[in-house]
Amino acid sequence: MEDGKWVVLENCHLAPSFMPELERLLEVLNSDDQSCCNPNFRIFLTLMPSEVFPPSILMKGIKMTFEPPKGLKNNLLRTFAGINS
Q: Distance (Å, rounded) from C-alpha 10 to C-alpha 78?
């Protein structure tokens, strides 16, 4: 945090017991005392939809979603677009 490094926590939905601790840590980061954090510090979380993920974390972050295209034609077009010759 002090050096402005980036942190990525992947598959957060697989660690439901860690969610309360993560929520507490992020509350500390969100506090008014920003002296501990470099302005370049970022934390990225990846997860699948989950009932145990704290909504407070979702409300405070920027959300990006990736949904595969619907239908056979769109799936085939996506597959062929990813092939490099």
A: 25
Q: What share of the chain is helix, strand, coil (3-state, %, to 5)?
A: 40, 10, 50
The strand ranges marked E within the chain are 6-9, 42-45
Asked if the structure places residue 77 within a domain, the reply is yes
Please write the tens of the pLDDT for every residue from 18-70.
989 988 888 887 776 666 778 888 889 988 888 888 888 888 888 887 776 67
Q: Is position 1 within any domain?
A: no
Q: What range does the domain containing 14 cover?
A: 6-81
The span from the CA of 5 to the CA of 37, in Å, is 10
Count structural domains, the chain: 1
